[in-house]
Amino acid sequence: MPSLANPTRFLDLVGRIVPWLALATAALFGVGLYLALYVAPPDYQQGETVRIMFIHVPAAWLAMFGYTLIAIASLGTLIWRHPLADVAAKTAVPIGATFTFIALVTGSLWGKPMWGTYWVWDARLTSVLVLFLLYLGLMALWQAIDEPGRAGRAAAILALVGAINVPIIKFSVDWWNTLHQPASVFRAGGSTIDPSLLTPLFVMAVAFTLLFVLLHLLAMRAEILRRRVRAMQQSQVEHATVAGA
Amino acid sequence: MLNLGPHAVFIVAAYAVTFIAVAALMLFIIADDRHQRRLLAELERKGIRRRSAAAPATAPKQAARKRRA
């Protein structure tokens, strides 16, 4: 782990991992989509609309995973001052926001035929909407402050305050009466989903997770390079100023 | 061809939105990565170095000079 604190070593590692990760992600999506669209049977209650589950559920998991990652990275920024922590936190924001957006839209599209409405203000849906707004707030904060160090510390505080929303999302279906169904995969007593639907869901979840990791590594590389470019441009300006004086 | 039943439009829309959102995110990240690499290569071509990158290259020379002195 200490060697990964060095951005140059991290970039080398990313360069080596990315091609293999991209291949594994593409292969898993191929298998996952085949299982989800051709092999999985229609649900006895929901019919064919259950196929939305194979994208909605992984997107919702990753929406929460992304925010948890940002919260841990924020601790890294504020407490340990790890050189890659705020890079990791900043670059996870748009990825997490995209998966939250996907979870919200696919959930609405699943809700209309099953519940008769695209949206209800129940605890689960509302807390996920709050998560999306937190992601947008973090993006706005990063854009508003030019200096990456200051932006990183301010965003880390906001991210840690917002982290309280993650357990609220998870347990909202237990704490309040919601139209959204309770947990059916990770629950005490085991999953209530039939293996014929659970297997494609698991494969799609792993594929989406690998996609998240792949995009995050690429985004982190771009951010490290952006900071190098910025440092070099500043050095160029300083050099020109000294030469001119 | 898949028979998605009476709610096919919702299923297709869900997959289409997911595909478009993920594709847009991927294109944005890959384009940003390439743009930063191009900028970095341009600056390096002009002979501009980061202070931290320049330090290890000059340090051994300075050490050798000290040893000779």
Task: Please write out the topology.
The complex is a heterodimer of chains A (245) and B (69).
Chain A: H1 7-39, H2 53-80, H3 85-115, H4 123-144, H5 148-162, H6 165-175, H7 195-244
Chain B: H1 8-45, H2 51-68
Q: Which features would summarize this protein structure in a list?
A:
heterodimer, A: 245 residues, mainly alpha, B: 69 residues, 81% helix, rod-shaped
How would you describe the overall organization of this protein?
The complex is a heterodimer of chains A (245) and B (69). With 245 residues, chain A is mainly alpha-helical. Chain A has one domain. Chain A has seven helices and no strands. Chain A is globular and about 80 Å long. Chain B is mainly alpha-helical and 69 residues long. Chain B has one domain. The longest helix of chain B is centred in the middle third of the chain and has 38 residues. About 13% of the residues of chain B have low confidence.
**Proportion of helical residues of chain B:** over 70%
Give the low-pLDDT segments of chain B: 56-64
Number of helices of chain A: 7
* Strand residues, percent of chain A: under 5%
Query: Helical proportion of chain A?
Result: over 70%
> Outline of chain A, from the CA principal axes?
globular
Q: Secondary-structure element sequence of chain B?
A: HH
Averaging pLDDT over every residue of chain A, what do you get?
A: 91
Reported for the largest beta sheet of chain B, the result is: none
